[in-house]
Amino acid sequence: MKSSFSSTIIGSSILAAILFLPSASYAFLNLPFINQANPALANYAAAQEDALLKIHLDIGQVDVAKSGSSGRGGGGGGGVVMTGNRLGIDGLLLELHGNQIANYIHPKMPGADGPNPQLSTGAKALNILKPGKYVDLTGSKSISLEHGVWEMIWRRNANAGALICGFDVPTEVTRNNGASIPKGRMYVTFPVWTEETLQDLRQRKIKAEEIAVECMERLKEETRKMEETNNPLMKAMHFRNACKAHEEIDYSGYRSYNAMPLERDMITLKNGLHLCSLGTVWTKKDGFFGGDHVLLGTASAMAGVREELNEKKAVTERELKAVAFDGLRPFE
Fold this sequence. Notes:
The chain has 332 residues and is α+β, with helices and mostly antiparallel strands. It has three domains: 1-34; 41-195 and 263-321, no CATH class; 198-257. The chain has seven helices and 14 strands. The chain has helices spanning 2-20, 41-46, 64-67, 195-228, 232-252, 254-259, 306-311; strands spanning 51-63, 79-101, 124-136, 139-142, 146-153, 160-169, 173-174, 180-181, 184-194, 266-268, 273-276, 278-284, 293-303, 319-321. Helix 4 (195-228) runs antiparallel to helix 5. The two termini are 47 Å apart.
């Protein structure tokens, strides 16, 4: 009896310890309901030691109604449409350090300081070699960014990860037309793939598009027949067939694949990684329950040696498909 009672007490103590451990501490348990990181994540980050990224920021009003996006930094569906006044910042040059932990004051990162820190490399050191410039009516001005850090997020078995740079913006950056970067935290996010997962996704996207095209034609045909017939039974049958075609479009994964920027220009990073050249710029407003993510605009990236990057200029776009992470939503 005493032994049984002791076992119960010990078991309860272990359970309580597990329940009250922070998420980063119990990742080692490898339980099926706990997200695990890509086993190669640390190596992917370490390989980017001294890697250079030149980034152009295109800040402006984001029409969420047109885009159908949730307004978050890395998710949502449809296109992110840039409208109205815009603020272009050129020449932001960053040096990544994959082997150096950011042991200085820096903004909280969505992965390392978020609900699933085990999916992140942790905040890594970053040098701002050139701050980036913009032009207003008074001439050329430099943007002030402080405490730069970066991290990579990648879930086990996920086809895509994310490279995220974070900065503190000490003062609001604005120009005469009203477009601005608010004071506070600013993040720049780019999706990243391996060569194998990128090719696999492209093939799956092609197959999904083939299925979707056939289903769309069937949906159109069944809808036409439903509208033309006066027979209630035939109308019901064609309506059912149209619904089935619509359902098959959803199950094909076409909409998800279509939101992935798989056909855009890719930047080849070290260790066989591919970074999408087009990403998102966003901030997070502080709030009692964690605050809201606010999309500020888009970012265009280039990689290479410093001499080459000094000559390169970014090509910007007014529309950007929302980034999809194949099930990985690190900001929620």
